[in-house]
Specification:
By secondary structure, this protein is mainly α. 77% of the residues lie in helices and 0% in strands. The chain is flat and about 75 Å long.
Length: 130
């Protein structure tokens, strides 16, 4: 009976990560094979075709990627501020406890990530305009 108790942690800690990595690698390989097959078919049909037009990887423009960074940065900044401000609405807590320190630190980390993404947006916008 004791060996069945060990199966659950082994299954979660060993088998689940291996299976998920195997599935991700298999999906990436399948996607690459499909792209290669599409490119080979296009090359066979039209010899003067530009291969650069068939790249399916990143279809977003640099401006769209910058706006995505700005949106994620603002969301993280507001989430960090909300987590930090949640301490105001918790009336009966001991402000010296570890939970309060954890809440403040997680709010600070979220806010710092948001600020970093917003700075990345402005630097990228400046470089894109040059």
């Amino acid at each position: 009976m004791e060996w069945t108790i060990m199966l659950v942690p082994i299954g979660i800690c060993v088998v689940l990560p291996i299976a998920s990595i195997w599935l991700i690698v298999r999906c990436v390989m399948h996607r690459t094979e499909k792209r290669a097959a599409i490119m080979m078919a296009a090359i066979e049909r039209n010899a003067d075709l530009n291969i650069g037009e068939l790249q399916f990887g990143n279809t977003k423009s640099p401006a769209e990627r910058l706006l995505t960074k700005l949106m994620c940065g603002l969301m993280l900044l507001f989430a960090g501020a909300a987590v930090s401000m949640s301490l105001i609405f918790l009336p009966y807590i001991d402000y010296a406890s570890d939970v309060v320190i954890l809440i403040i630190m997680s709010g600070a980390v979220l806010s710092a990530l948001g600020i970093a993404l917003i700075i990345t947006y402005f630097v990228g916008k400046k470089l894109l305009n040059k």
